[in-house]
Amino acid sequence: MIYILKTVSEVPVTFAKAKDILQGKEKERKNEERELGHEQHITLEYLRSIPMLDKKVAEDIAKELIEAIPTLKEHQVIMIIDTLPDCDEDVELLFAKERMKLDKEQIKKVAEIIKKVKPEMVVKKAKKKAVPKKDDKVEEVKADESKKDAE
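The structure corresponding to this sequence follows.
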């Protein structure tokens, strides 16, 4: 049997809300002894694998962003919540292709709001430990071997 799907409406949602929707569908389908469609299953697995804000926290941030910058559209607020840009450069990148450009003060406001709630496990700008190159390890091993040979 071939099903033809028709898009009735589109509503932008956060990753957290999409995850809740798909988990609800998954439970509903398990009761009917059916599975999610291929695309739905892949999407749910992806949403389970990425760190994201709780649904309640995301709603609070959305309200705070709209109060701080009333010109933001719903899809822009959701884009900010999903990507959690914590510095000015990241916010600028998000709005690079948007028709509406934010001024420097607005960009700083967005970054400050996100910095307040961004979970530690999501922090992109964390200090990374220096990873030794392959050549460095080889030289250290050779140096150690030469010391042993000298003894």
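Residues 15-31 form the longest helix (17 residues).
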